[in-house]
Amino acid sequence: MADMYCQNKECCYKKNQSQIRGTKGNKHYQSNKASKWYEYWCSTGCRDQWYKDNATVCMATVGIIPKQTVDVEDAWEISAEYNYQSEGGNSHDYFLTNKLMGVRQPITRQQAQTPEQIRNDHGWCRKLNSEAKPLAIELGLAS
Predict the structure, then answer these.
(1) Distance (Å, rounded) from C-alpha 92 to C-alpha 90?
(2) Residue in 87, 10, 81, 68 with CA at minimum distance from that of residue 42
(3) Per the count of CB atoms within 10 A, which of 3, 28, 36, 114 is most buried?
């Protein structure tokens, strides 16, 4: 894949030292390379400027999305909380929650994570929230 450069047309006008290219007598500023973190832009500043310049076109293309809601019976989520212990043995606690119903049920790591997440020892990871409601039904917290 070829290098992608920042999609903000104004990026080259930042005139940072790192943007100088060319040989003696033929120097110029060029856009920065796009960051792997921001995908199409080199920084949040360039991304924000690009959006300000293109918001109307983006919204006309995608369309205005009406108000979205999540009903109480679909508001289940799986969360993880990190517990630091000064003597070692840090851990994560996992919960099945539905804030609209006021439910915060402790669950096991096996219920909160996929086998791959457990195998990779990524304690902060958790299953997708789309899997939370079936778990709530299995535990008798929802119908």
Answers:
(1) 7
(2) 10
(3) 114
**Torsion from C-alpha of 36, 42, 48, 53, nearest 10 degrees:** -120
Distance between first and last Cα of the chain: 49
Chain centroid to CA 47: how far?
Answer: 16
- DSSP annotation string for 31-74: PPBPPTTTTTSSSHHHHHHHHHHHHHHHHHHH-PPPP----GGG
Provide the token pair at 58. 């983006």
pLDDT by residue for the chain (143 residues), tens only, comes to 468 999 999 998 888 888 889 988 899 989 989 999 999 999 999 999 999 999 999 999 999 999 999 999 999 999 999 888 777 777 889 999 999 999 999 999 999 999 999 899 888 889 999 999 999 999 999 98
